């Protein structure tokens, strides 16, 4: 027990082991829910007018006549061996995931960066001016974002804000890229190919969906930063920092915020989970070719393996986000010992 | 006293404006600290000692606090008239501070080294970033080098903290010399194993150790004035004695001016050269230690000395003061002490109350008392 790197690695390892039962549970729940939602998937796939013999054949092929438990274990067996099923357009689900996941990761990381760069300083400003107009302004700003449904916010940004700013609202690039998509991260691929104009193009395309996600999910972080700053500001060490002769900016950001951030990290996991679920709507509206759009398409096109895979990936994403938050908490708070 | 005082507090009044009313935490406080002297401030809890300590370097949160009147003249500059953004230039190297609560006065997120080193960097930067020639000078001898005066720091173009840090990165003072100075600062406050201590976080230190680090940090900036706001009240009795001994030794060593605040008459008697006694936000008596403790000239001071278990001078049985301290929101008219005063006469409750005035008595030079009948107070 301690704060060395090995202790930290043990901590992360143990937490990752917890993923195994979690993924089992989540796949089971997703599997059952989907079987309730689609009692007869073969009828949906083959169309309402399909012959009974064709439907029976389909049921036999996919083993849908076996008991549900057996079906689940068969699915799990395939799942673990890397066969996550095949979408109706006959692309393996795992291939789609490998293609779309990096794009979503890029979107989430970009909006997280915007939240950190804007949401946290806003919380500091609100705490500094608590009870006065900048505080109220910030509160209106983040409560507005928080209360707005994702689809509404995304549509408002895409329809009204985008023309005003002259920014693109669709896809990752303006024209099909002339370079291979190695990582499927829209900013990284042209960078690897040394194509700088495309990097700029990608950044312009990334900005609006990332900003939309960020604005809609910033509230918790800003509020938490404000609350914990208000707790820290009257403490003697903030005054002691001032009494060292440091400028107010250094006192705020190096001393007060540094400890206030420890509490802020506790809501980081929730925020990332919010961002992940927000991608489903935001990617659809901004035609961002990522996992959110894939999830949306899978659900609307009765793509059962695709839907389950998305649920699993989003679950893992949320768990890893929480682990990340816990690690960050421990790194920021010297009192934490890795257990 | 021909030298200009380091600090002159003139007619300072501070209110706290709260929902429950306006609290007159300080009313017309006037005193000065001559260079190199230790001025003690004593008073019961809630009488405004911390408010005074925080008001001097402009640390009071506004709101709720509000400076109603007065000046705080530090090395010739009125700090209450200084724009807020210039205040940092006076703090640290000009006025240093040790806080009441050692649990909270060090940042829990940074190691001891980083916190002390930061203070040293601020000072070195103010000395134009030139690492001082160390060989010819013993540690912390203020007498050989005049501390930077506030007028010289304020006159220089102000650089925000960020720029300070960047400048320091651009031209690093060697890490070795910085560490050497941190070690020196920790050794100065009698920390036996500074090499180990500087790697620790505040939560790994005891209260007494934290207060030592706090003192080291404040002194490492070589302030012209050190304010110590009850530096030992929150400590265990044994640790309290150790830290007090340390401070007493440091007072002789560093020869800086000190404002030492305490509610304990015994501590003040031991540490201070001059004493101010506060009651309900007013300074009611001020003068040399021997004079105040030997021959108090205010009924409250006299009562306080009689009520104090470790009084050294006065005889007779312990007496507690009848009545209770008035609320700062509803101060009595005239002399704030009149409801409890045995000498009170009708004119004592008439506004304005008695001013803090010199006694004009032989053998009481520099002794001031805020009582109409100061001459009649017997020992
Ligand atoms: N932020 C505040 N808002 C309102 N009133 C306050 C505030 N801070 C202090 N006061 C009031 O001002 C008065 C003086 O407080 P101060 O802390 O200066 O007293 P003190 O002499 O330092 O007491 P102690 O010995 O307990 O430290 C107290 O009566 C307190 O109730
Ligand atoms: S002025 Fe009057 S009430 Fe006040 S201390 Fe002196 S004698 Fe007492
Ligand atoms: Mg106090």
Structural overview:
The complex is a heterodimer of chains A (339) and B (379). Chain A has 339 residues and is an all-alpha fold. Chain A has a single domain, classed as MetI-like fold. Chain A has 16 helices and no strands. Chain A has helices spanning 5-17, 19-37, 41-46, 52-61, 68-80, 93-128, 133-147, 150-165, 188-193, 196-217, 219-232, 236-243, 248-264, 268-285, 291-300, 304-332. The longest helix of chain A has 36 residues, at 93-128. Chain B is an alpha/beta fold. In chain B, 29% of the residues lie in helices and 20% in strands. In chain B, the strands form two sheets. An eight-stranded mixed beta sheet of chain B has the order 6-7-8-3-9-10-12-11, sandwiched between helices. Chain B has a four-stranded antiparallel beta sheet with strand order 2-1-4-5, covered by helices on one side. In chain B, helix 8 (237-254) links the parallel strand 7 (225-229) and strand 8 (257-262). In chain B, helix 2 (112-126) crosses helix 5. The longest helix of chain B has 18 residues, at 237-254. At the A-B interface, helix 12 and helix 13 of A face strand 6, helix 2, helix 4 and helix 7 of B.
């Amino acid at each position: 027990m301690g704060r060395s790197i090995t202790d930290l690695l043990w901590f992360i390892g143990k937490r990752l082991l917890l993923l195994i039962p979690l993924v089992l549970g989540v796949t089971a729940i997703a599997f059952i829910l989907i079987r309730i939602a689609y009692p007869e998937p073969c009828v949906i796939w083959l169309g309402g007018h399909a012959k009974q013999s064709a439907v029976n054949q389909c049921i036999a092929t996919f083993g849908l006549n076996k008991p549900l438990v057996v079906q689940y274990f068969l699915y799990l067996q395939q799942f673990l061996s890397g066969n996550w099923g095949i979408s109706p357009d006959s692309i393996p689900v795992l291939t789609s995931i490998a293609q779309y996941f990096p794009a979503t990761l890029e979107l989430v990381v970009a909006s997280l960066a915007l939240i950190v760069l804007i949401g946290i300083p806003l919380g500091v400003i609100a705490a500094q001016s608590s009870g006065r107009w900048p505080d109220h302004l910030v509160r209106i700003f983040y409560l507005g974002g928080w209360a707005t449904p994702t689809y509404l916010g995304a549509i408002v940004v895409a329809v009204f804000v985008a023309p005003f700013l002259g920014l693109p609202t669709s896809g990752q690039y303006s024209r099909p890229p002339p370079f291979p998509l190695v990582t499927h991260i829209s900013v990284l691929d042209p960078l690897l190919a040394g194509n700088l104009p495309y990097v700029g193009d990608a950044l312009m395309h990334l900005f609006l969906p990332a900003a939309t996600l960020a604005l809609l999910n910033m509230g918790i972080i800003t509020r938490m930063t404000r609350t914990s700053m208000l707790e820290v500001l009257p403490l003697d060490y903030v005054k002691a920092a001032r009494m060292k002769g440091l400028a107010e900016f250094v006192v705020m950001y190096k001393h007060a915020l540094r400890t206030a951030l420890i509490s802020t990290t506790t809501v980081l996991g929730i925020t990332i989970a919010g961002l992940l679920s927000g991608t489903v709507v935001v990617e659809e509206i901004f035609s961002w070719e990522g996992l959110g759009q894939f999830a949306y398409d899978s659900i609307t096109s009765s793509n059962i393996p695709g839907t389950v895979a998305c649920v699993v990936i989003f679950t893992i994403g949320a768990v890893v986000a929480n682990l990340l938050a816990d690690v960050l908490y421990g790194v920021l708070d010297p009192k934490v010992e890795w257990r | 006293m021909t030298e200009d005082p380091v600090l002159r507090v003139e007619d300072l009044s501070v209110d706290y404006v709260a929902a429950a009313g306006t609290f007159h935490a300080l009313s017309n406080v006037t005193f000065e600290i001559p260079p190199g002297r230790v001025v003690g401030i004593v008073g019961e809890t809630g009488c405004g000692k911390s408010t005074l300590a925080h008001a001097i370097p402009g640390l009071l949160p506004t709101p709720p606090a509000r400076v109603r009147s007065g000046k705080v003249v530090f090395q010739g500059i009125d700090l209450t008239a200084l724009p807020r953004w210039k205040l940092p230039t006076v703090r640290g190297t000009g006025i240093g501070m040790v806080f009441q609560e050692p649990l909270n006065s060090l940042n829990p997120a940074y190691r001891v080294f980083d916190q002390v080193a930061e203070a040293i960097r601020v000072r070195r930067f103010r000395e134009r970033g030139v690492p001082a020639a160390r060989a010819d000078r013993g540690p912390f001898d203020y007498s050989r080098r005049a501390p930077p005066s506030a007028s010289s720091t304020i006159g220089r173009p102000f650089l925000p903290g960020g720029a300070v840090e960047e400048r320091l990165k651009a031209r690093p003072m060697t890490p070795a010399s910085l560490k050497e100075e941190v070690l020196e600062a920790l050794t100065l406050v009698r920390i036996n194993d500074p090499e180990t201590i500087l790697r620790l976080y505040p939560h790994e230190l005891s209260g007494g150790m934290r207060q030592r680090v706090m003192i080291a940090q404040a002194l490492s900036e070589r302030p012209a004035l050190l304010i110590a706001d009850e530096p030992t009240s929150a400590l265990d009795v044994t640790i309290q004695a150790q830290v007090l001994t340390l401070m007493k030794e440091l007072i002789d060593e560093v020869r800086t001016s000190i404002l030492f605040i305490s509610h304990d008459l015994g501590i003040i008697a031991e540490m201070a050269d001059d004493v101010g006694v506060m009651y309900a936000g007013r300074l009611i008596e001020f003068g040399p230690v021997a004079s105040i403790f030997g021959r108090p000239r205010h009924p409250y001071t006299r009562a306080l000395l009689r009520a104090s278990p470790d009084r050294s001078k006065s005889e007779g049985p312990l007496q507690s003061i009848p009545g209770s301290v008035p609320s700062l929101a509803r101060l009595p008219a005239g002399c704030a002490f009149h409801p409890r005063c045995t000498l009170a006469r009708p004119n004592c409750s008439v506004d304005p109350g008695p001013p803090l005035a010199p006694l004009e008595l032989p053998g009481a030079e520099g002794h001031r008392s805020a009582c109409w009948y100061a001459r009649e107070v017997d020992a």
